[in-house]
Amino acid sequence: MPPSSLKEAEHLALLGYEQELRRDLGPFASFAAGFSFVSVLTTVFEMFPLGYGFGGPVFFWTWPLVFLGQFCVALCFAELAERIPVAGAIYQWSSRLASPDLGWIAGWLTLIGYIVSVSAIAIAMQSILPSLWSGFQLMGGNPDVTKLAGAENAVVLGTLTIAASTLLSCAGIRISAFVTVAGVYAEIIGLCVLIAALFLNARRGISVTMDTMQLSSGMSPTGAFLASMLMAVYVMYGFDSAAELSEETHDAARIAPKAIVRCLLLSFFAGGLVILGALMAAPSLSSGDLATIGIPYVITAITSGLAGHILLTTVAISVFSATIAIQTSASRVLFSMARDGVMPGAGRLAHVSPRTRTPIAATIFVGICSAAFLWINYGDSSLFSAITASAVAVTYFAYLLVTIPLLLRRQQWIRSGAPSTFGFRENGRTRRAFVNVCAVVCGMLFLLNTLWPRKAVFDPGGDRPYMVAFPGAFLLVALAGGAIVRAVQKKRLAP
Known about the structure:
- By secondary structure, this protein is mainly alpha-helical.
- It has one domain (22-488): Amino acid/polyamine transporter I (Up-down Bundle).
- It is built from 22 helices and no strands.
- It has helices spanning 8-14, 27-38, 40-55, 62-83, 89-97, 100-122, 129-132, 148-170, 173-200, 221-228, 230-235, 241-244, 252-281, 289-292, 295-302, 305-339, 346-349, 360-376, 381-416, 429-451, 455-458, 470-493.
- Helix 8 packs across helix 16 (305-339), helix 9 (173-200) packs parallel to helix 13 (252-281) and helix 16 crosses helix 18 (360-376).
- The two termini are 37 Å apart.
């Protein structure tokens, strides 16, 4: 009997759990969770200089390339979200497709990636709030995040953002969902206004995307293009958030898969239009401002002060909404693992408040860890850039721990010719297998591209050569740390 024909509590019981969390999310709130995580209005603002700095206008084509690969991943996740609609999706899927140990590593890496992602999105407030009002520059001095005062202030503003997000997340899924949905509405309005302003002030045509004159001179054309691809790789993940909230979504087996696909589709189209519009409307392609300031440089040139402030306000709302969405997803991963007794302090972390019906301890723990990552960066923005890349790398690795076991299961089923015990559909099975293969291959290539030790990316100043290995070392440390925690926990629970 398919999950849609079962009552949700009964289906959850078949998966081995009781209904503890409150099901308050509808279709749009489920979609909003994933869309806020990706948050193209925020992340494209942040990452545009990275892509343009290496690839120039031609970096636009990395956007659809990365989308095609990640869309294959999203389709695989949507298939699993229909069959296994449960909190802690990546952890649960990997455990059931492969083994509890592999699933634990997938959950551990997802948790680390999401915790650092909370820090990364919260610190974006520094590029917005001081521009709206100088009073937000609490530390005084230059608000540029590459300067000492700006980097220190970014940590303070990010910490305050995380603290506010933690309070709202602990108040219940209904309140945090309301803020997330409001943020999505603000983001969509902001995107529409921004896209319209960019295209109405276009100075050149779409052919600008074929301009290869601005490629980084310090790399080969291929190397510069691949480095510019990091912008899209850093943006297009987290669409599984809708699945992480499955136990809080009405009719999750039907709604969560659609939300995963829709949020990535809308993010692709909206983000692509912003990138294209910025390239077409930029006052100059060669001044260097697109590679350092990015889209705000274009906005300043085409809008008045009031319009620019309104747009920056919508971006700030989007940043806060994204912080809540990512923190909520991370806390549900931690809650799901703790509920299975596989995390230290499982009893507290798995406790659900009878009043708010949320895992408060897990939410607070995620907030504290995210703030701690910010303070590691206090006064040193280059280190945080490497940590952000590392968060993306561990998340992509965790995704592979789902897509690879799924592909192996699928191949075994196709070769055997027997009825599927996992619930694979007969119709379109060849197409689904092809999509799964693409998800694995693209995931591996994106991970390799992220970990590649580029001096221009991780040590642009040339004074820290060891930083080029930081993302790879971070992944290895995360895997080793996870293995140790897992072994200690298993030993503690052994009879």
